[in-house]
Design a protein that fits this description.
single chain; 496 residues; alpha+beta; seven-stranded mixed β-sheet; 15 helices; 18 strands; 28% helix; 23% strand
Amino acid sequence: MAWALKLPLTDEVIESGLVQDFDASLSGIGQELGAGAYSMSDVLALPIFKQEESNLPPDTDNKILPFQYVLCAATSPAVKLHDETLTYLNQGQSYEIIMLDNRKIGELPEITGKMVKSIIRVVFHDRRLQYTEHQQLEGWRWNRPGDRILDLDIPMSVGIIDPRANPTQLNTVEFLWEPSKRTSVFIQVHCISTEFTMRKHGGEKGVPFRVQIDTFKENESGEYTEHLHSASCQVKVFKPKGADRKQKTDREKMEKRAPQEKEKYQPSYETTILTECSPWPEITYVNNSPSPGFNSTQNSFPVAEGNGSPSHQPEPVVPVADNLLPTATPQDAQQWLLRNRFSPFCRLFTNFSGADLLKLTREDVIQICGPADGIRLFNALKGRVVRPRLTIYVCQESQQAREQQPKHENGDAAANTFFVYHAIYLEDLTAAELTEKIAQLFNISPRQINQIFKQGPTGIHVLVSDEMIQNFQDEVCFVLDTMKDDTNDGYHIILK
């Protein structure tokens, strides 16, 4: 019985001792986490954090990148530690980018003594704007027709070969260079950061850009598609001299800060080193337009093959007026732009119907497409035709007209003969062009017309030459008489 009474007493003692020990252990927590004793490095050294670090991808501290790109522009002093550097640029000013070869001996021997291709881009830093990059750039093209976002200053650049700027990609330039030789490229950025802000009420902050460089080596097919290295930096672009004023303002603000506050910010460096990044995703642009300066479209008439006769009608070769109708859908409008050699503007007018395009004024089209292409597009939309150099009217002589001709000359026949004339418009003023146009009128191949003669004085037949056509009077009338050639299936044409 005594043993049974001691049992509850023993439990109370044990419980009391545990409470005292727990209180004692909590009493020192506030003292241990004081300002002097607390250290984040000690916390990060705990085994649990060591275990998490082991699951992260291996660091590249010991990795030496094959290339390094240095933008010769000072970084902003108003950037906090551990944040990415920010560099201010002036609109249209040339800035040097030094291309450095950092390869170790024996590294990437396949590019030693050979060229590599680098592509420089000015892209958006904000993810939101990256998703709508195409719309943003097309809007900029609308407001700044004929201008580019990024250009190369070729006379100041050193060591670059075959520089190129695609007219459909306003924010991209590319060039070849040899890593073993001194190379520096000068770029000019023509857009400013405030052009892409959502609300423009004055005094708004501009959006940041990224200057990114992707470098590729040559593959077995001779194309520069094998990626070697990519790096980028963050920039903001101001109106001329605006970057200098912004840099001065940031420097003055930092000088007014307390020493403890200054330690939280990076110092300003004279140059900006582009940091390694992922390669920019390539976008495939479907562009069937010929290269600038070269036009693959020929306004010549096709020549039908094989035998033909007036009873056999080949494919029509008469150029049909290709006017855009207001009822045309956006897809029809795209096809019309392609047919009329406006393919560089297809992406710009993606959602435009025929009615939308026809509502554009002359000033609108010139502002969108530039003066040269704008005037051409406006004339095409309005269906304006250039006046031909020479117009002649021809009528085919019928057998009935031949029989009535003597009576008509004697004045005995009633003037009831009705002749229908067709207009022929000539631009080149050559016999070959006239042959093609007459062949179209008869729906035969031009190869079936052997010779064209003009009936001269006393009924003689004069061979029509280029010089004769050039001396035709404008809007002259002819009656066409056809004669079958006995030697082949061709015809002779006589202009009376």
